[in-house]
Structure formats: structure tokens, C-alpha cells
User: Fold this.
Amino acid sequence: MLQYSLRRILGMIPLLFLTSIVVFSLAKFMPGDPFGGEIDPSNTNPEYIEEMREKLGYNDPIHIQYIRWVTNFVQGDFGHSTAHKIPVFDLIVDRLPNTIFLAIVSLIITYIFAFAMGMYSGRKPYTWGDNLIAGYNYVGLAIPSFVAGIIAIYFFSFQLGWFPFAGSVEVGLQPGTWDYYVSRMHHVLLPALILGLMGTASYTQFLRNDVIENSRKDFVRTARAKGTSESAIYNKHILRNSMIPLITFLGFDIATLIGGAVITETIFTYPGIGLLFLESVDRRDYAVLMTITMLLSFLTLLGNLIADLLYGIVDPRIRLG
Assistant:
């Protein structure tokens, strides 16, 4: 497994290199110019502007600019945010914990509901309960996350007052205190519920179908013939085989939840990577935009590797070669 992991990690390098070319090219082709955020806006002297463009390297050939950017990136220098006037690394380090916290809570919600509803529907297909869960799945797949977020804010924040509608923590609380952590959980719960419950539908449907399919296989008939209880058959034999499709989702979710939280974080004004990404697009903050895109690309590749490694743990019949 170690050799396999090393080969996969080495295989990421050319993929990330190609991704960096695409990301840099798209950033250069976008309308606008990041140069405007790096000079004194009150000084419109053409000589000053041309001098600064030359000094900052904006007049260099494209390939020279790319080599300089990718060299600095590999060394950990992600550039300087023209919108926030701070290094991109510090900006992402400040926002990333919020998004990771949101992703973890939403993943927990997703898997709890998906396992509960998927196993129930798989064990009791075509019943009233299964039909209700299927109806929820269709609604969850049909409703866009931004619509669900707006409805949730209206009812649970404005009408009932159960949850805050913006921010990640109440202003004035001392970090590290009990009230601080309670406030963080209180602020993250509603957006996490939207992300988690909207993603539950596809998980539930896949798990249900796989449980039904596995329940008809020979190894289940053999277990029943040996007198194994139904709960042991479903919870041990069938569930273990049915988890493999969900592991595929888990690998993609590592990047999807961080990148897919763009809409949810924007609606709830939750200060994470998703909101920062949208702000960088709107404000032409190219250094931040390129860094976040590269981060999401790396997390996608890393998620695929983690999913492949988990295959071998869940099902020993799968050998990683």
C-alpha cells in the first residue's frame, strides 16, 4: 500500500503541472487587470503606471510570468492579495478552518442521515417508509442549494430565530472559551444542514439500491441458511459490501464540499474559502483565485487517493497494485 501511495503521489505532479498552466492561462484571459490593485489609484501619471508595470513584471512575456508564478508557488509564496492587501497564504489560513469545520459537520450530517435512510429503504423496499424517503430524495435532488438556503434563513433565522443568518461566531467572544465554541457550532449548524441534507439524497439512493442488490446475492442466501440473524446479515455482510460506492463519494467530497460551499457560504455570509473564492472573482484578485483553484485541484486528487486506499480497508478482496 505504501508503494502504491507513493506512485499515486508522484503521478499527481504532472497533473498539477498541467492544471497550473490552465489556471494561469484562464486568469490571464479574464477581463480586467490585477495591476490596478497594486498601485496608488490616485496617481494616474502614465509614466508612473508604465514604470510600475515594468517593476512588477506585468510587461514580461507570458511564459516568464508563468515560470515566476509557479516557482514562487512551489516555494510557498502564493502572492499578495490586491483586494485585502495581505499575503494570500495568511488570507487562506485565516479562512480555511471555517470551511473545514463546515465540511466536517455537513459530512457527519450527510452520512448519519444517508446510512439511516439508505439501510431502512434497502431492508424494506417499496413500503410507505421507502416511498417517503424516495420522495425526500427527489425533492433534495431537485431543489437548488441556494433556494434551500434562502428558505432556511427565512424560517429558522428570521421567523423562528433559532439560528444566526450570517458570520461564523458571535462578535466579542474570547477564542478558546466555552461560549466561543458554542457560538461557532451555532453559526455553522444551519449552513451545514443545508449542505448535508441536500447531499444526502444521492447517497441514500445509491445505498438503498446497493443494499437491495446485495441482499439477493449467494453469500446472503448462504448466511441465512446457516441461521445468521437478519440484523447481522444486513449490518455486517451487506453493509460492508454496500459501503464501497459511498467511499467513492467520500473521496470526491473532500474537494467538493470545500469548493461546493461557494453558494452556501455566500448566502449565509459565512467567511470561508467558498466566499473568498467568489469575492476574488468579483474583485479580480487573481493571486487568491489561482491559489484556491490549485488547492481544490490538489484536494480532488488527494480525495481520489484516499478513496482508493479505503477500498482496500473496507473490502480486503480489493488489492492495490
